[in-house]
Amino acid sequence: MSDCLFCRIVAGEIPSTVVLETDEVLAFRDIAPAAPTHVVVVPKEHHVDVVALTATDPDLAGRLLAAGAAVAAQEGLGEGFRLVFNTGAHAGQTVFHLHLHVLGGRPMSWPPG
Ligand code: 5GP
Ligand code: ZN
């Protein structure tokens, strides 16, 4: 059994609310939503962060972005949304299995603080 939280979600060992799935990507609702719509999109394969993924499989990084855009469309975020990769401690990354946050459903200020 993996000790990685998102590997365990991908394996179905921890329940999640899935909104989109392909053979290589899983998108599920964040357990502590920071916006009315807050979905995280993960590659099923374990990669620590976006730097690691783009170094080893940039094509998969592109497909992950496409999945994020598809989630935004599916969630009706036509008025705007954010796609965010928190990368490293200063960015607030807490789960070290790469994930793309899809945030929307309310106006957002910049920078988020
Ligand atoms: P990070 O801070 O690493 O960029 O984002 C990790 C995200 O994972 C957080 O937004 C957090 O709420 C979410 N999260 C943590 N544990 C779980 C869980 O067990 N299930 C789901 N669905 N999301 C989780
Ligand atoms: Zn993992």
TrEMBL record:
InterPro entries: Histidine_triad_CS, Histidine_triad_HIT, HIT-like, HIT-like_sf. Residues 5-113 form the HIT domain. SUPFAM superfamilies: HIT-like. It holds the Pfam family HIT. A motif (Histidine triad motif) lies at residues 97-101. It comes from the Bacteria. This is Histidine triad nucleotide-binding protein.
